[in-house]
Amino acid sequence: MARVSCKARLKTCWPRITRCCTRRPSQNENAICRDRIVLSLVKRLPHVSPLMLQSILWNGQRLAIELDAHTEDRRVVLALDGLFFSERIVPAQQRQVHFDFPFAPQAGGEFGISLRLEPQGIELLPRPWYVRFGEAASHAMPASVAHETSVVAVAQQDLAPLLDATIFSPLQQPDALHVPVTIIVPIYNASELVQRCIEALIEHTQGPAQLLLIDDASTDAAIAPLLARYQNSPGITVLSNTHNVGYTHNIALGLSHAPQGDVVVLNADTEVGPNWLLGLRRAAYARADIGTATAVSDNAGAFSVPELERHNPLPTAWSLMQTQRALWQQAGLLTPALPTGNGFCMYVKRAMLDQVGGPDVDAFPQGYGEENDWCQRAEHTGFSHVIAGNVLVRHARSASFGEARRESLGQTGMAVLRERYPHYEAAVGATLFSFERRVLDWRVRHIYRSALNATTPLRPRVLRIVALPSEVGGDDADALIAFARDFDIWKLECRQQTILLMQYSVGGWREIQRASIAPCLEFAPATWLRYDEIFAGWVQHYAIDLVHLIDSRGHSGHLLALSQSLGVPLLDTRDAPALSCEAMSITHQYNTTLNSRRCFASAMSQG
After folding, report:
1. Which of 66, 160, 310, 581 has CB atoms 3.0–4.6 Å from 476's, for a disulfide?
2. Greater model confidence, 108 or 59
3. How far is it, in rounded angstroms, from Cα 231 to Cα 53?
């Protein structure tokens, strides 16, 4: 017998039910009655286990399940599209449990729900049940053959950005991303890791910044000659302690050499990637109350992704830089909150420094707890702390101290924190598993799985500003194919009362987003504002690395200022339209424009 979906059964029986009513039910009664019938039908769905799972219901934002009676605690594990998402403990004698979804883990798409009981490893659903955010379960069909094979297709797709995420607004803070930053790097031994750290900073740091390297009397003989190579490099300062004073003293020393601007505290056993500082800046300035923004890592305790408190191997199919670019483009601009930052890579705003000062040197002389105390003092004055989910920084961890000493220092620091902030650990627990953090970790799992099927290397994204498809430089296919070898080409064009965001692929242009505005050539102040907001949002959500202004007709007159406020370089070839189609020349200009923003480019020739 062919299986009949819940939707099909409801469609068949609902007219008969409504005809039997003595009066026409109200809209609310109609919905209540329909939900009850859907629930009873879902209980009999052929893919629901009759032994463990009594019912399952999706109302668009909540997954509610009912288990059979049991006498022991059960752990229900929820997976989306075959990847772990969350879990709940169901105590003995309790049968109902639910998972709330305040927003969709990926914008605009459906996802397949799987449920499993642990530690028994019992699958409650033999195959994924596909639902869509915002739509009740009565509209979801049981898994079909097409759905069963779609997990592979999902793994090959880019994650749609979360367009309702809180983002930096250049219209409200046009100069925020141009505040000078001092990057403080305390150093103690581990010369090979230190060299990688410095080279990555030179390669990927953009915007107004200076680098402060502090040698804390290293016993590694290779440290001194290594730092000497950078001693006279523009934008780089090297300090050397005559005796070892400890990590927190070095941070305090660095702060004394940074009386103005913001600060980044960075461990010497890290490797930053493309747009790392820009991502931290944007996260820190997304709201005025944010005091610190910390990167995510493969190995940084609570800031590790996708698995907490573990070392997470990076995808073998990608290099470190490709993995970092993947998170930059697809992690979703999520900034989960925590009661603390982490000094392995933590951006600190000047407003917080002015309010609470630096870390407590006396209580945490060697580190391990100093940033937690620092952030807690700031939180008590009204500041909050966020994770920049799209900034991945590799971290060797314990390279200077070793695992045993790190463990000892961590225990000592935690004892001080517990005494000073009795509610700190509870606050960490309440935020560490927030929905926003679960979505971030799930998206990273999704990104890492996609590496297995990736056919095209991840490249910097270039947004070409054109008027119409017929305009010069707008749609030269041969040039675009050539550009696409090194860059991911996008374009923004104006059509009557619509602006379109499109992405180029082998098959041609693919529409990604569209927005309605007033006629493009008849801008009023309100229209300018709406255009600017749309442009700023799209550039951030779709991780644009470079804006290429080819034809500004129909577009905002603020594109140059907006790009600068967003920290994105802009190449203007309006006076040379033919150049926009010369692949070799324009590719060179793209690379030159991107590289020109390096803070320490001149230091690359040193040593």
Report:
1. 581
2. 59
3. 66
Range among 11-15, 188-192, 520-524 rated most confident: 188-192
550 contact partners, CB below 8 Å, separation of at least 6: 464, 465, 466, 471, 473, 474, 573, 574, 577, 580
Query: Quick one: 427 exposed, middle or buried, by C-beta within 10 A (0-12, 13-18, 19+)?
Result: middle
Residue 143 has pLDDT above 70, yes or no: no
Contacts of residue 42, defined as CB under 8 A and 6 or more positions apart, other chains included, come to: 6, 48, 55, 56, 57, 137
Q: Quick count: other Cβ atoms within 10 Å of Cβ 375?
A: 28
Write out the two tokens for 42. Answer: 């879902």
Residue 411: what pLDDT? 82
The DSSP string of 282-293 is HHHTSSTTEEEE
Residue with the larger pLDDT of the pair 462 and 479: 462
Distance CA 567, CA 544 (A): 10
Residue 218 CB neighbours (<10 A)? 22
CA 233 to chain centre: 33
Name the 3-class secondary structure at 571.
strand
CA distances 209 to 178, 199, 285, 324, 479, Å, are: 9, 15, 16, 21, 36
Q: Which residues contact 262 (CB under 8 A, 6 or more apart)?
A: 179, 180, 181, 182, 281, 284, 347, 348, 349, 350, 353
Question: Nearest Cα to 343, choosing from 404, 283, 266?
Answer: 266
Say what the pLDDT of residue 39 is.
41
Q: Are strands 384-395 and 488-495 parallel, antiparallel or unpaired?
A: unpaired
In CATH, what number does 179-452 get?
Answer: 3.90.550.10
Let me know: does 187 contact 216? Beta carbons within 8 Å: yes
* pTM (two decimals): 0.86
599/55 Cα distance (integer angstroms):
59
Q: What's the CATH fold of domain 461-595?
A: Nucleotidyltransferase; domain 5 (3.30.420)
Gap between the Cα atoms of 70 and 202, Å rounded: 59
Rounded CA-CA distance 77/41 in Å is 24
243: left (phi over 0), alpha (psi -120 to 50) or beta: beta
For residues 483 and 504, give the distance between their C-alpha atoms in angstroms, rounded to a whole number.
10
**Within 13 Å of residue 126, how many CA atoms lie on the same side as its CB?**
11
Question: 397 φ, ψ to 5°?
Answer: 65, 130
| Whole-number Cα distances in Å, 576 to 44, 371, 472, 572 | 67, 51, 10, 9
**Domain-by-domain residue ranges, the chain?**
6-156, 179-452, 461-595
